[in-house]
Specification:
This protein is of the alpha/beta class and about 525 residues long. The chain has two domains: about 15-245, Ribonuclease Z/Hydroxyacylglutathione hydrolase-like (Metallo-beta-lactamase, Chain A); about 330-505, AhpD-like (Up-down Bundle), CATH 1.20.1290.10. It contains 21 helices and twelve strands. The protein has helices spanning about 5-10, 55-70, 85-90, 105-110, 115-125, 130-135, 210-225, 240-260, 265-270, 285-300, 305-315, 335-340, 350-355, 360-365, 370-385, 390-405, 405-420, 425-430, 440-455, 460-470, 475-495, and strands spanning about 15-20, 25, 40-45, 45-50, 75-80, 100, 155, 160-165, 165-175, 180-185, 190-200, 230-235. The strands form two sheets. It has a seven-stranded mixed beta sheet. The protein has a five-stranded mixed beta sheet with strand order 8-9-10-11-12. The longest helix has 23 residues, at about 240-260. It is elongated and about 85 Å long. The structure holds zinc ion (ZN). Zinc ion binds near residues 36 and 86.
Length: about 525
């Protein structure tokens, strides 16, 4: 086998990939929640399986593929790198194998996650944001009929297992990613199976720690000088990847400690830490590491699993983001701001909708400039209650929100659009723009008007002629001002980074939010 570039040459595709003479990696794109990798060490028909995936269908598929790709291997040992479900819930499909884990992992397995409570959590609809988030994460997985056979063998320190003529060395790292993590090292091949001590391309989570142990674990792994590293999630890595990952953990440790010492609450710290340098998937997962580190710094009980996931859901949905200018807090309200935020009398659809709600975060930000807000609000109300029909107005607004990448604007207006008579199919079609075959001639012209104003700051002759067949002079003025108004609103929402309003529920925004 070639000794260089194996990590970059191996595609990140689902299936078994040979990574050494005796070493195989099962890769599971996209490496996100539950999409864990696994491994096989084999020689002379003997086999040691590393981790068994998240559910029985995935584990069965992996086993069936193994029989085709590496025929005639008997799996005598299963090693679980740790107790997280995505690494051991397929164990029962290896009944002939001796399940081997560290003593730490055995303890965590005994009082850790169980399939039934997990299924109940997925079905729980008390927190819609959380349910939506979890449903997304667990799409494609099923947790029926999972049994958790107890480990047959436990160890601490290191354990060498002979697989035919090859040695697989199990190294008990102790608490890092979880309360007990093990790596499997195949010195003959220079292959390291790290479990979730390494995540490739996706933000890691720390349920265990302290983080210093995890950083030390990285140094241990670097010291092995591996040629190929099979991370717990994501594409293959090499030794440089471990060094980079350690840098990320060191960065997080410093940033989290600073914020803890400054008295910032953990939920705020989770969105306050800049991750620009660490371009990885699922930035909301940093909330887990922050919550775990805070409880250790405070010497308090760990934050409950559901609460941490709820914080992740709030960040992922945009409800919790790091505002550039924060919405005015209740404690900051003075008499003038209170008066301004009390919705002025209006019959507009939006005004009615907002009447029984807490102030929009948008308004709570803009009211920090009370003179401007006082002058602006009447215009905002006027354009939402003018001479265009509500359905036309909302179609224009939604298309503008899409073009501007404003999730906030879309989420506020989607329910208003449905109430105004647009159908769910129209909202889905808004993504396709004016060329979709489902629009009437009038709707096509409206959408073209939005797109042209967005791209060229004017409207072409052809579009204007079409519009003029459907709308009078006042409506044409209003239309252009309406598109401009919702650009202005989207600019404010995007640039000031206004958090979504928590009462709005899961986002239905089909576009790409502006950064
Ligand atoms: Zn995992």
């Amino acid at each position: 086998m070639s000794t260089s570039n194996d990590t970059t040459r191996t595609p990140f595709s689902r299936g078994w990939h040979r990574v050494g003479e005796h070493s195989w990696a099962w890769l599971e794109p996209d490496g996100g929640w539950g999409k864990a990798n696994a491994g096989l060490v084999t020689d002379q028909g003997h086999g040691l399986q590393i981790d068994t995936l998240f559910d029985l269908p995935h584990a069965q598929h992996m086993r069936d593929s193994l029989a085709l790709t590496v025929p005639g291997v008997g799996i005598e040992t299963v090693v679980n790198t740790h107790a997280d479900p995505d690494h051991c819930w397929g164990n029962q499909l290896f009944p002939e194998a001796a399940i081997t884990v560290s003593e730490h992992t055995a303890r965590e397995m005994a009082d850790g996650h169980r399939p039934e409570p997990y299924r109940q959590l997925l079905a729980d609809d008390r927190d819609l944001l959380l349910r939506h988030y979890l449903r997304d994460l667990n799409t494609g997985f099923g947790f029926e009929d999972i049994e958790l056979p107890p480990p047959a063998r436990t160890f601490s320190g290191t354990l060498d297992i002979a697989v035919g003529g090859v040695t697989a060395r199990l190294i008990d790292i102790g608490a890092a990613h979880t309360e007990g993590d093990t790596v499997v090292w195949v010195p003959e091949d220079g292959v390291l199976y790290s479990g979730d001590l390494l995540f490739s391309g996706v933000h890691p989570v720390m349920w265990g720690g302290p983080i210093e142990n995890w950083i030390a674990a990285c140094r241990t792994m670097e010291g092995l000088n591996p040629r190929v590293v099979v991370p717990g999630h994501g594409p293959l890595m090499d030794r440089d990847g471990i060094v980079e990952f350690r840098g990320y953990l060191e960065y997080l440790a410093t940033e989290i400690t600073h914020r803890f010492e400054a008295g910032m609450p953990w939920r705020e710290a989770a969105v306050d830490i800049p991750l620009d340098r660490w371009n990885r998937e699922s930035p909301e997962r940093v909330a887990v590491t922050v919550a775990t580190m805070y409880s250790q710094l405070e010497k308090s009980a760990r934050v409950a699993f559901e609460s941490v996931l709820a914080a992740e859901a709030a960040i992922a949905s945009g409800v919790q983001r790091r505002p550039r200018i924060a919405p005015l807090r209740t404690s900051e309200l003075d008499g003038r701001a209170s008066d301004l935020l009390r919705m002025p009398r209006s019959d507009g659809d939006l005004a009615r909708r907002f009447a029984e709600r807490p102030p929009l975060n948008l308004f709570a930000v803009l009211v920090r400039h009370p003179d401007l807000f006082e002058a602006w609000l009447p215009l905002a109300l006027q354009v939402t209650d003018g001479s265009l029909s509500a359905a036309d107005r909302e179609l224009v607004t939604l298309r503008t929100a899409l073009r501007c990448g404003s999730r906030y604007e879309w989420d506020q207006h989607a329910p208003v659009a449905l109430a105004a008579g647009l159908r769910a199919a129209d909202l889905a079609r808004a993504v396709n723009g004016p060329d979709d075959l489902g629009w009437s001639a009038r709707q096509k012209a409206l959408l073209r008007c939005v797109d042209e104003l967005h791209e060229m700051s004017t409207v072409t002759e052809a579009t204007w002629r079409e519009l003029a067949e459907h709308y009078d002079e006042r409506q044409l003025i209003e239309l252009v001002m309406l598109v401009g108004h919702y650009h202005e609103v989207a600019f404010a929402l995007n640039a000031l980074r206004v958090p979504l309003d928590p009462w709005i529920g899961p986002s239905t925004f089909p576009g790409v939010p502006a950064a």
